[in-house]
Amino acid sequence: MELFATFFAGLGLLFIGIHFVGDNLKRLTGRNFRRRVTLATNSHLSAASVGVLAGGLTQSSNAVTLIAISMIQAGLAGVSAVMPLVAWSNVGTAGLVLLSAVDLRVMVLFLLGLVGLAYYFNIDRSLKYRHVAGALLGIGLLFFGLQLMKEGAAPLTEMDWVVDLLQLTARFDLLEFLTGLLFALLLQSSATVTIIAVSMVSLGILNFDQSILLVLGAGLGSGIGVGLTAYNLEGTARQLALSQVFYKLLGTIFILALFYLERYTDLPLLRAAVERVTPELGMQLALVFLVIQVSSALLGSLLQRPLERLCALVSPVAPHEELAKPKYIYEQALEDPESALDLIEREQQDILARFPGLLPVEGETTPRPEQGQRILEATRTLCTELENFQAELLERRISASVLESAMTLQNRNVLLVSLCEALENFLQAMDKMIDPERYVQSALEDLVRLEREKGVGLADTLIEVLHMLLESLRDLAAEGDELDRTLLRSMTGDHSETMESIRRRLLREEATMEQDRREQLFETTRVFEQLVWLIRRYASSISPVARQEAS
């Protein structure tokens, strides 16, 4: 029992260490890092180099893939530009695996002591060094956990039942391969499985052939894990995730072919190559892992064009993806701050024009609820890009008048994000209020029509009023004058007493209303009031007089 407890504790520290390393290093890759990554995708070689660096920093090709997906969704880069980055990020994850094959016991003990002193003197609370301290603590825990695992597992080699079990599994290559695949799916990391395998092969618990098959299965399992993560994605985001699956598959097939060719023909290939580098089995396995990652990246780079076409065939571009990309702003526009402000305002006007069409008004075509949600998600992504663009503009030396206008546009951007969230809540609350049982399956416009037939009218009224207000805001932002702003501000004044009287009237007329329906009624009217308030705030930020003077 003590042996198992030691091994289990070491395994736990290993997982904690990997989490600490990945989480803290990812936090060190902020907006500037992402900007450099975007610039690096201009050429295949630079994208591959940054991919290796990003894989080494995050120690997770899955994390790099997600970062690349966010770049695509924000319109910062295309799929073909970031594919080399994703492919070569796998090579960067071999860093910890190679270190795990080296005896670092004394160094790890000193490292844990130094990190402990850093925490004692509150260095971990420093904004500049806290993530560095966290990453070093993770590295220390990771390797200390490996040492405990080795100590707990060492006596297993002397147990007869363990020897018999390993001899049995050694006869079935598929079993070893599937074991690695399932562990990688469970742990979401082929590097983690390989680090465990390195310690096992070093102790003689696994033979070299078993460990290679385990690592190959883990590589494919990691790719399948990325594919499963991308199940809910669509369009170019899913294309990128699928490319990672194909990279892993290509590398696995290639190394499997070398493995069996060497086994059955005695040609000096993979095993012979790593044996020439080092006699130590653990390091040999770590080198095999590195070869697998390099093979995946090289094959992926050579076959990039066919892989692009295949991914596009499996996952065509989604219609709403273009909505997440800026139409007007671009990097060079920052050189002329006044022009940049005009472009930002045009982007914001374009966003406002989307909102009225999301509401199910009679006589107009309305997207179904799930489509509306995707449109709002794409709009929030675009707002994030606008926010980053404005932040870069504010970092430059600009005049006082430009600064004032930039702050106004920044405030509008915050309001746009709030409008997106409130609209999504309103549509969901409205849908539930009309017919909770049909919420998932039916379109809101069908439910509004159903309510009209019942003669209730509240949902119809709220939607008509909100549609009118959003159209008025859109027109005001595009070309409205001071009179338009005054009228819109008047329409969006404080009507809390009116909404409260509507609630009380409905509750009196429908005395038998269930508690769930009552809650939905209050939620719907509350979000409606929030939307009206946000529209008023946005209208107040628009100055038609200043716009006319500028023109």
Report on the architecture of this protein.
The protein has 551 residues and is mainly alpha-helical. The protein contains 25 helices and no strands. Helix 6 (94-100) packs antiparallel against helix 15 (281-302), helix 21 (458-479) runs parallel beside helix 24 (515-540) and helix 23 (496-509) runs antiparallel to helix 24. The protein is elongated and about 85 Å long. The model is unreliable at 435-448 and 450-456 (pLDDT under 50).
Share of β-strand residues: under 5%
Unreliable stretches (pLDDT < 50, length at least 5) are 435-448, 450-456
Helix content: over 70%
User: Count of helical segments?
Assistant: 25
* Coarse morphology: elongated
Q: Short summary of the structure?
A:
This protein has 551 residues and is mainly alpha-helical.
